[in-house]
From TrEMBL:
Positions of the Methyltransferase domain: 47-140
A molecular function GO annotation: methyltransferase activity
Gene3D superfamilies: Vaccinia Virus protein VP39
Pfam name, any one: Methyltransf_25
Designated name of the protein: Methyltransferase domain-containing protein
Organism expressing this protein natively: hydrothermal vent metagenome
């Protein structure tokens, strides 16, 4: 893939690391917890987190005693994780800027490799799976999390409705999102098998994003990922404000609800080298 989208450019993610964490870590941490539950990292085991984002999984695994290397292709994301490590005085976790399609890691050197809604953005998803397997010791465990089908996303449905109501003449992007190249249980299982993994098990879980203040969520949501930044830049400030008011209205059922919960499905794949 020669023409990269905004969410495949490291600097774009680095610029919004804090906003991404504020908007979505309460959601992605649910997937991290599920992976922790299924893989059960133990004291002394080595864990590689690829496209680690804000570090939700890495920090959890380290607190259980595993020796963790958290990697991401965006220096800003890695710096964000490192700051959290320093703030919490965690000593068994290291960070490094790495391309998940060509990891600077020796063959068969880790007990566990993981990528939680990260590998799905890679220009070459197959290389991402190959690398996750290459670095595992024989019998090592791997987890990859991707999203379910886009039509099951409350947040995206609300976003589209909000913009359509507020700015009916605005043309939403029509191309398939990069992350939607790999969605659903069947596609995830196939990628594992193509990379040579064994004992592949896929489960779908419901991720719930609870918003105590929809207005506060919107204020960070508009700059929480490279695609959102690009979308709202094209929309313009005034139209973004109009869309935000519609988002709040629709989410809260015409302001009848204060706390709102948005659902999305994710597929959790566990496999063995």
């Amino acid at each position: 893939m020669t023409n990269l989208t905004p969410d495949q450019i490291p600097e774009k993610w680095g610029d919004i690391a804090s906003a991404y964490g504020e908007a979505f870590e309460s959601l992605t941490s649910q997937f991290a917890d599920e992976v922790i539950s299924q893989l059960s990292p133990k004291t002394g085991e080595t864990v590689l987190d690829v496209a680690a984002g804000t570090g939700a999984f890495s920090l959890r695994a380290a607190r259980l005693g595993a020796d963790v290397l958290a990697t991401d292709f965006a220096e800003g994301m890695v710096n964000h994780i490192q700051q959290r490590i320093d703030d919490d005085f965690i000593h068994n976790i290291k960070t490094s800027v790495m391309d998940g399609q060509a990891l600077a890691v020796k063959d068969a050197s880790y007990d566990i490799s993981v990528s939680i809604v990260g590998l799905i953005f890679f220009p070459d998803i197959d290389k991402g799976f190959t690398e996750l397997k290459r670095v595992l010791k024989p019998g090592g465990r791997c987890a990859v999390v991707c999203w379910g089908h886009p039509e099951n996303f409350d947040m995206m449905r609300l976003l589209k409705q909000s913009i359509a109501c507020a700015v009916p003449d605005f043309e939403m992007p029509t191309q398939t999102p990069v992350w939607a190249r790999l969605v659903g249980e069947d596609a995830l299982k196939e990628k594992f098998q193509q990379a040579g993994f064994e004992k592949v098990e896929i489960t779908t879980i419901d991720g719930l994003l609870t918003l105590d203040s929809v207005e506060d969520f919107w204020s960070v949501f508009i700059s929480s990922s490279p695609p959102m930044t690009a979308l709202f830049s094209a929309l313009g400030k005034e139209n973004t404000e109009r869309a935000g008011k519609e988002f709040v209205r629709l989410a809260t059922d015409d302001f009848k609800k204060e706390t709102v919960t948005l659902a999305s499905k994710a597929c959790v794949g566990i496999a063995y080298a």
